[in-house]
Design brief:
This protein has 264 residues and is α/β, with parallel strands linked by helices. It has one domain: TIM Barrel, CATH 3.20.20.140. Helices cover 40% and strands 13% of the residues. It is built from nine helices and eight strands. The protein has an eight-stranded parallel sheet. The longest helix has 18 residues. The chain is globular. The two termini are 17 Å apart.
């Protein structure tokens, strides 16, 4: 089965022992072990020894045809030069989208400071990814990461394609309404699993995603993603296999929708 993982990182997170080169080797090994044909690598909202810059990620991945890049944007720390670089990389087809990190940064997505990013994504016809739902950092503020916040952005920017990351988990019910109402909004299923995973939790996710698919009447707005290295790709694939989708619908979720939206 063909598969594109639309949501991976080359961050070291808390182990701090690896390098971006080592992370890349591990990513490629993981992709091979899980039969992932291509992955989209997303840079962080901040740059430090554990979180490589968008520039570094582009540099290390551009020789790999099975890797694409989405640039993380910081509303607090990005400079005019950064913005110019993002425009340049979009012109050169080195970026396939831009991600904002609501919750990690304490701003609602409707904040006017983001509008230039929305206009940039619309101009180049690339998707905007929005972190929604639970966060990996204790200093994040969840009210900024609720998927309902995306509705206003989608309504005011109807030509902008938006991807709600992580199904807005645990607010999956709210996410499904935003998907149903706004045909320019999509969601990925990344970051739903952290070891260990109980059978009960997995079944809860399966039930909620099935309800979402039934409510929206289509798998055309869901994208396969893992959030590697935080989440185990194999568990994400197992989740999809347990949804009982037809081959056509499974192909849309696993690669077709991502191919269309990200143009990979």
């Amino acid at each position: 089965m063909k598969a594109i993982d639309c949501h991976v990182h080359l961050n070291s997170y808390n182990d701090s022992k690896g390098s971006i080169d080592g992370s890349l080797v591990e990513l490629l090994q993981s992709m091979g072990g899980c039969d992932i044909d291509a992955s989209i690598v997303i840079s962080s909202y901040k740059v430090n020894k554990d979180r490589p810059s968008t520039d570094k990620i582009i540099g290390i991945t551009e020789k790999h045809d099975n890797l694409a890049v989405v640039g993380g944007y910081s509303i607090e720390n990005h400079t005019i030069e950064d913005f110019r670089n993002y425009r340049k990389w979009l012109l050169e087809n080195k970026l396939k989208g831009i991600k904002i990190y609501c919750g990690y940064e304490h701003y609602f997505p409707i904040d006017k400071k983001y509008q230039k990013i929305y206009d940039l994504c619309t101009e180049f016809e690339v998707p905007l990814m929005v972190h929604c739902g639970d966060t990996f950092a204790s200093d994040a503020k969840l009210k900024y990461a609720h998927p309902l916040n995306v509705d206003e952005v989608a309504t005011d920017n109807p030509e902008l394609k938006i991807v709600i990351c992580h199904l807005g988990n645990p607010w999956i019910l709210d996410c499904q309404e935003v998907l149903y109402k706004n045909r320019n909004v999509y969601a990925d299923i990344s970051g739903l699993f952290f070891d260990p995973v109980s059978d009960y939790y997995e079944q809860c996710l399966i039930t909620k995603i099935k309800e979402l698919l039934s409510y929206t009447s289509s798998p055309h707005h869901l994208l396969f993603g893992s959030d590697w290295p935080i989440s185990d790709v194999r568990l994400c694939i197992r989740l999809v296999n347990k949804l009982g989708l037809s081959r056509k619908d499974c192909d849309l979720l696993m690669f077709g929708n991502t191919q269309k939206i990200f143009k990979v």
